[in-house]
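Q&A log
Question type: sequence-to-structure
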Amino acid sequence: MSQQASILTLSQQLEGSVLTEGQARLTQLSITGGQGGPGGNGHSQGIGGTGGPGMGPTVNITAQQLNLSTLASEKASQQSRIQAAQIGSHCPPPSRIFQGRKDILDKMQDFFTLNTGIQMIYLLHGLGGAGKTQIALKFIKDSSSCFSDIFFIDTSTIATIDACLKNIAIMKGFGDSPQGGLLWLTSNVKKDWLLVFDNVDDPNINLQDFIPECDHGNIIITSRNPGLCVYAGSDSLVSDMEEKDAVTLLLKSAAQKVTGASEQTATEIVKVRY
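Response status: OK
Response body:
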């Protein structure tokens, strides 16, 4: 390849590259002279003269050297943080037809506003399908402004717990391990975070291994196991809805207008159900 072609190729590679100071460094590239010229005229005695001057110029170029491995690593790290943030902070909304449970929601509100200077843990326990998770989600929706960060953790298996804690670590720049997530939670004394351990139903999972060991932060646990009250400062048994709330919920879910006739029919259905 000729020198001019080499310079043109290098110029094309550099054109349009916009790098930060930490992503590029200046590098001196040198192109030496070309092939030497033909030999000089011979002397009369038959001895050849010296060679002619080189025909190619010497070119010095100052260019930015791309650190491709650094760029790729930083891009991957940024994507991981974005993905972790989307997962770690994702808290599903409550059902659009959520109804009732005001007594429990008021009790939770009072509990988490006590500001006792210790870690606040609340347990929602009851049979499967009673509405424990929905109550937790409703509370979060109504009180989200009270917390600096909200993390919703699927506690059905150790693997899902570890994955959620790992996402917290990545999102907060504390590495990429479950231990990093716990470290962020325990070290951020000034952060009024809320951690939701949802569906803690497997008796083989020791929840103590995943509760941050600190005197700050807020935790909601949903479980079928009332024995988890040992961790909680307060709790609520989630059982059947009151008849009035159940009637309203039935009419909402059936998309029926509230009339005297529809309420009477719904009440009869609810009484049979309960």
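Response note: The chain has three domains: 1-14+23-30+55-66, 78-239, 241-274.
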